[in-house]
Amino acid sequence: MKSLNRQQIMTILAELDLIPAIESGFIQYSLGEVVVPPVAELLLDKGEVHIKYGYVKADDYYVIKVASGFYQNPQLGLSSSNGLMLLFNQHTGELVCSLLDEGYLTDVRTAVAGAVCAKYLAPKKITAIGIIGTGIQARLQAMHLKQVTNCRKIIVWGRKEGRVLEYQTYMQAYGFLVEIASNVSEVAAKANLIITTTPSTSPILNADDIRSGTHITAVGADTHEKQELDSDILSKADVVVADSLVQCQQRGEIFQALKRELITNIDIVELGNVISKANGRENDEQITIADLTGVAIQDIKIAEAVFLASKS
Amino acid sequence: MKSLNRQQIMTILAELDLIPAIESGFIQYSLGEVVVPPVAELLLDKGEVHIKYGYVKADDYYVIKVASGFYQNPQLGLSSSNGLMLLFNQHTGELVCSLLDEGYLTDVRTAVAGAVCAKYLAPKKITAIGIIGTGIQARLQAMHLKQVTNCRKIIVWGRKEGRVLEYQTYMQAYGFLVEIASNVSEVAAKANLIITTTPSTSPILNADDIRSGTHITAVGADTHEKQELDSDILSKADVVVADSLVQCQQRGEIFQALKRELITNIDIVELGNVISKANGRENDEQITIADLTGVAIQDIKIAEAVFLASKS
Fold this sequence. Notes:
The structure is a homodimer.
Chain A: E1 2-5, H1 6-14, H2 19-30, E2 34-35, E3 40-43, E4 47-56, E5 61-70, E6 81-89, E7 95-100, H3 104-121, E8 129-132, H4 136-145, E9 153-157, H5 161-172, E10 177-180, H6 184-190, E11 193-196, E12 215-218, H7 231-236, E13 239-242, H8 245-248, H9 252-259, E14 268-270, H10 271-277, E15 288-291, H11 296-311
Parallel strand pairs in A: 1-7, 8-9, 8-11, 9-10, 11-12, 12-15, 13-14, 13-15
Antiparallel strand pairs in A: 2-4, 3-4, 4-5, 5-6, 6-7
């Protein structure tokens, strides 16, 4: 049995192109080739724990992920999120690899899904990358976009000036030119690829601000309550993509727009189908939206990919 | 984070008295102080995986156990059962210890529960320990009884003569005098503490054979289908004990007797209540039955105990 710690995993990830693995995972998911039972949950006084698990039928492994959120941890100097992934042999049940990533692989697989969305949905010429928020996803999403676009211009907006300045410094060290927007409308005016990464529970991006030819990937909303996009954006959009149809019907931006009856189920296409048919965007005038709520197939695929890379 | 492998765990267990920990766990369980959500399950082509998890509210840890059964494994020279336990900090979500026991801790916690049942339910003077079956529980149950009785006489019955002879040799090396019974009735005639440990799906022990003053711990039946005891034994018994009332209503010997309306819920007492009131057996004439289906609190307690012992 192999065990990889966070540092070892980060070293492996630096050399690894995860886009093919995550793409094939979404395709298999949309084809019904993935078994993902309901999430198991443990609620504690100071936090919550989710256990996600599943496998691709034709693969050699199954994966169990433990992810926790303990919201008083920062007061103790600890990250609020934590976790690990366990990779088992699908034919014998043997534990093959412990990935003690402390939650980092979840952050990365989310960012890789964002890059996949941009690959199939963003307009050909990206004028600037708009980033809403300044946290870990605001950073990782932009970094993973490097694989699918040559654009290195970011226009960022965040609530706290200090955090925005930190973001600017951090991303410039990674080769981006980072402009700070004074409001969200300015991001929508200058960027035609926008990533929203906040835990907001009320819309931040307004429908009126969204220009034709814009793609938006909404990463932040993954519960019933969270929402970053004015739901009118989804009815205005030409293409609305869900990472998981069944999950987006119950949480996130698509859930909000369905609830308000601004879109219907036939307006939604699943990401795996977009990838397999490469039919996301038809022209540079369309408005496209991808709603990422996070699917266990991403965990399965990244755990497999890191383990296989650790052997070579 | 500490990681203990099977060999290290076995070394720690050799020095550890688990009865107090398991007893306090059953008491806390019966008092409603334990949180144990429904078991998560993953079904694969060649096996099945169960994820059991929970915590004692006042404790410092929560435990996630992964247990698998892959029934073609023996053809590959591997054990069919496998597993591990993960111990996390209940206040921060941090992984504290990985117990890579390959399923051994589950075997041990089951045997310790058997010893606890004998401690409170067996008659004062044990004439012989009756063992039905020859597998791992047939061995571990007898070994753990050493802590609660001075009786070292075993009378064993099993279906396969070769396995019975192996059992005899094995247990004699551990200081037992082992007699082989030619049939199950002979076990019931000679032993007044009987442990049934088989995966049988039809009754092995007959009600007519059970003498007054006998205690039976039924370990084998943990599903809807499995059954080792003629259900008339439960209606004949003076005391019927369930490790978990809610679980025994759905599987095991008590489930079978309830289904046939040979007993009712008021005839059943939960093990934690027996321990806390020390009121299992009133005299040496009573027939007592304990039905062990396996409860996650046992996993929580053994994982905690092994981890704490590893620090000292």
